[in-house]
């Protein structure tokens, strides 16, 4: 290594007239230039890398989605989501105990009823599939937070997230009361967090009012605030039987190209009373996650969705290291600014993070 007195500044400064053009850097006598600065010094060993690591993923950040079906004795793997299962309410307690045993703090419940109609009537049934599952989970693992998805797509014969008119229009305002009734049924059964995913305008305010009116003012709302009309939902729709029978969801879910609109959706949900806001999907929308993190201080969730999970599984079946891929993706979501990650990899990640 050259002695300090022998050090010469490089001739090529990348087009800068002099080193003073580099703002926010102390360049006194060239001390921040190679060979005096060597970035690899802080990468030499695993202990050193751990010491200076900026972003960490913890099991405390994770929520595990669960699919519950209206039947009995069911534990059936979902072909489009390998490693994930359909559970019946009488068996979902087994999985709740396993999840809690791994230190995962919360699950997100999706219900798949036996009977569907045009109005999603079974969704608000106090004896329906999700209320049954909530009670079973609370009995088996009382320390586990139960978050419930509130939407109509799994419960309607047409597969849309709202009430549909005779002409095929998704009726926003007519859907709000239905969603509020679902939220109250879930809260009555013991849900800790209500998570509306429908993307109807005004649904957070309607749900907040309904919960407060019946004494559930302590139940939090985690709003799917910036939920995009994404191509990454295919495996979920297979698992939940929620594909629309006609058209698509582009009149209520967000255009994937819009950044400013996503920020406005977030702010509107905050104004309506959301306690936690969410960006969905996560991996293709890391820029939105960062923008939201920069503009507000509420807890921010991101949904590492089914298509993202399935891509990792497909790659791992042939040439990729699933553990490294999944943890890198989860780290990137945290690095972008998410406090909470909903992921089908939660159980695997909990085990990997202990290693």
Q: What is the number of E strands? A: 12
Radius of gyration: 24 Å
Discrete helix count: 11
Number of domains: 1
Overall pLDDT, averaged?
A: 92
Please report the distance between the alpha carbons of the first and last residues: 39 Å
The CATH superfamily turns out to be: Aldolase class I
Q: Tell the overall outline.
A: globular
Helicity level: 25-40%
The level 1 CATH classification is: Alpha Beta
The CATH architecture can be given as Alpha-Beta Barrel
Strand order of the biggest β-sheet: 1-4-5-8-9-10-11-12
Spans of at least 5 consecutive residues whose pLDDT stays below 50 are 1-20
Order of helices and strands: HEEEHEHEEEHEHEHHEHEHHEH
**Biggest pleated sheet:** 8 strands, parallel, barrel
Which structural class best describes the helix and strand composition?
alpha/beta
Strand content: 15-25%
Say what the CATH topology is: TIM Barrel
Structural descriptors:
single chain; 355 residues; alpha/beta; two-stranded antiparallel sheet; 35% helix
